[in-house]
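Following up on my earlier thread - several people asked me to post the actual chain instead of describing it. Fair enough. Here it is, all 106 residues.
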Amino acid sequence: MTSPEILILDEPTSALDVSVQAQVLNILMDLREKLHLTYLFISHNLAVVRYISDRTAVMQKGKIVEIGASDEILCHPKDPYTRELIAAVPMIGKPFVPPDRIMELG
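Reply from S.P.:
Thanks for posting it. Predicted structure:
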């Protein structure tokens, strides 16, 4: 297929170091604009999802639990599972919270 309208990208940057990951993401963004592509981008990396996606769907056990604009989903999550995912993202200066305490902190 030489002119796809949609590309499915399943964890395309998961095994890459940060600098190569950034290069790949920038190439994908450029191609999206130049070729008017749509991506179905599958990832566990919420920072990557926010960077590359206009809309985000969060899945739990194969079912969509929340869908909407990426910034809205990631800044103001409504579903408890989405809040758990965001709380589990490691951040510098944020104390480590063991996974079994995430729901308690809600």
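The chain has one domain: 6-105. That should answer part of your original question.
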